[in-house]
Amino acid sequence: MKFISIAEAIKKASGKVVVRGWIHRERGSNEFKFIILRDSSDIIQCVLKKEKFSDKWSDIDKLQIESSLEIEGTIKKDKRAPTGYEIEADKINIIGFSKDFPINKSLNEELLGDRRHLWLRSRKMTAIMKIRSRYVQAREQFFREQGFYRFDTPVLQPTQSEGGSTVFEVKYYDSKAYLAQTWQLYGEAAIFALEKVYNMGPTFRAEKSKTSRHLSEFWMAETEVAWWKLDEITEFAKKEIKYCLEKVGEDCAEEFKILGQDAKNILKIAKKKWPTIKYRDALKILQDKEGIKIPFGKDLRTIEEQKLMKHFDTPVVVTHYPKEVMAFYKPRDSKNKDEALCFDMLAPECGLEIVGGSERSLNIKEMSESLKKDGENPEDYSFYFDLRKYGSVPHSGYGVGIERVLQWICGLETIKDAIAFPRTMTRFKP
């Protein structure tokens, strides 16, 4: 018989099946061995009776968690089984023994981190990785449908992009280079040829932070568009996130259930209208409803973003942050000189910043002055300034922190669980 997945076996519901996978749980007696078998699709209970396997019982009795097996038998409904079905085994082929699997409930976060390569097998991590995969696939689908071109750029870059103190410096032959903080500067070069571009790639920030929402290496999903102004790019960002939420909500209901989340809530959020407010409006909400007075010119901290988002049940776009605390490429608003034409998108309840973007400055002089204040040499950005010298046009873009979105929709306590092998200030292995 042909091997089928456990999910396919459950769908078949009756008759002979042949499945294979790893032991998720096991228990037994002198007469029976109960095995919860898992594969990438689901889990199922398998019952082995000693009377059928007397010649193999000594090996069967040695089976522990994560041993790999092939099992042939008859599937039937059983309400007592974890997924409502059970396979009564007729044949078993032990592929690989596993002894004393080093993952158990008593392990703390640090020890689980040391065993990350094995912890990926857990139902929790498997569910998160499936949701992540579907989310990324949905994003690719979205941009193809919107007529965008994928544009890939260097990970090794000659300058910083978001702040000199947060770069990872690497030796580049006899010179030095930096790991990419963003795709943006090169993405901007592409819009003069392709107009609408997107990408997703590894991003590196050497931030000395040990919070539950920061990684030193994460995956940024970015886009740049010629001709668009702030209002167009913010609405497009909402459209992208909504599209991806709908896809994962529709396709990953079981995975969300494993994580204690309801996919219906994700779908409800995706169908609602998401508001846009100004930074000054956010300050007023914080003062009026939370009693927190923040002077204009101060960026919002995590605690303030969390307090703000208590008052919304959908993501919110916050625009026009103070120019003086923004990156050099975010332009000054001609109507309000102290504001930048930029935005963040914050997630409800948790207050996570999941998207950041802006119009892109066309003012070489102002950008040069901003770079000098940050201790940077404007001459290092000559390629970027060239884009403003030869047929420049208004353009805008943004970046989505994939792990931030996953932390929000999966209800994760730490962003480290939103990526297979997290890299932080204190961990770079396994």
Strand composition percent = 25-35%
Output the CATH topology of the largest domain: BirA Bifunctional Protein, domain 2
- Number of E strands: 16
How many domains make up the 3D coordinates? 2
Q: Quick one: biggest sheet?
A: 8 strands, mixed
Structural class: alpha+beta
Alpha-carbon distance between the two ends: 39 Å
Shape: elongated
3D architecture notes:
32% of the residues lie in helices and 25% in strands. With 430 residues, the chain is an alpha+beta fold. The chain has 2 domains: 6-96, Nucleic acid-binding proteins (OB fold (Dihydrolipoamide Acetyltransferase, E2P)), CATH 2.40.50; 113-418, BirA Bifunctional Protein, domain 2 (2-Layer Sandwich). Strand 14 and strand 15 form a beta hairpin. Helix 7 (230-251) runs antiparallel to helix 9. The radius of gyration is 26 Å and the shape is elongated. The protein starts with 5 loop residues before the first helix and ends in a 20-residue tail after the last helix. 35% of the residues are buried.
Furnish the topology, listing elements before pairings:
Blueprint: H1 6-12, E1 15-28, E2 32-38, E3 43-49, H2 57-60, E4 68-77, E5 85-96, H3 109-114, H4 116-119, H5 123-145, E6 149-150, E7 156-157, E8 169-172, E9 175-179, H6 184-194, E10 196-204, E11 217-226, H7 230-251, H8 253-258, H9 263-271, E12 276-278, H10 279-290, H11 302-309, E13 316-319, E14 342-346, E15 353-359, H12 364-373, H13 382-389, E16 395-401, H14 402-410
Parallel strand pairs: 3-5, 6-10, 12-13
Antiparallel strand pairs: 1-2, 1-4, 2-3, 4-5, 7-9, 8-9, 10-11, 11-16, 13-14, 14-15, 15-16
